[in-house]
Amino acid sequence: MDEIRISLTVNGKTHRIAVDKTTTLLEVIRDRLCLTGTKEGCGYGKCGTCTVVMNGEAVRSCIIKAVKADGADITTIEGLSDGNRLHPIQEAFLEAYAVQCGFCIPGIIMSLYALFNKNKDASQDEIKELLNRHFCRCTGYENISRAAVIAQKKLIN
Question: Residue 51 in 3-state DSSP?
Answer without folding.
Answer: strand
